[in-house]
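call fold(seq) -> tokens
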Amino acid sequence: MDQEIEQSQTPAEIQDEIILAALKLFTRKGYFNTSLTDIAKLAGVQNASAVYQHFNNKQVIATELYAKIFDTLNVSIDDIRRRSPKASDQLRAVVELFFRLSDDAPEIMRFILALNFNEFLPEEKPLLETAAFTKIGKIIQAGIKAGEIRNLDPQLAYAYFFGTVNQTLRLALSGALDKKADAYLSPTWLAAWASIAKK
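ret:
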């Protein structure tokens, strides 16, 4: 049956299935505890050798996964920045995006927030140096310049604001909180914004 599924899919579709399986396994078991056999089985491909028809090794899969996640996130942040000139509106939209992803695509948020991907992708940029997170830093800098955000070191403002957001999301993603992430969006936003807003 797996062969029938493979034969009815394009190579691009099979690659997407492999990447999705890797995402699920990396965020559940960790990168180093995930084998190509595990990925092949979850992706529904014949065996580990069939994975090699699409990717040279596990690290290439992880690199492709990293690129897809952060490219998509970068596009989303660009869209958010275009919609409103105000830092508060932009940051609110970023927080809403992260909470929505936590409920709708929890593996993606686990990859971003919980996996130390620099351990297995040492050539890739650390989280805060990715284009998406650099742009979020620029939103904070613009908010300070415009007087919306207190005159803080931008790195501190980032830490105060996203410390609250990230910790709430980690609790939601780990199951430590009773409800879905969206239930905590409003109080988290209020607490995070209060930590940096100019009074």
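Residues 1-6 have pLDDT under 50 and may be disordered.
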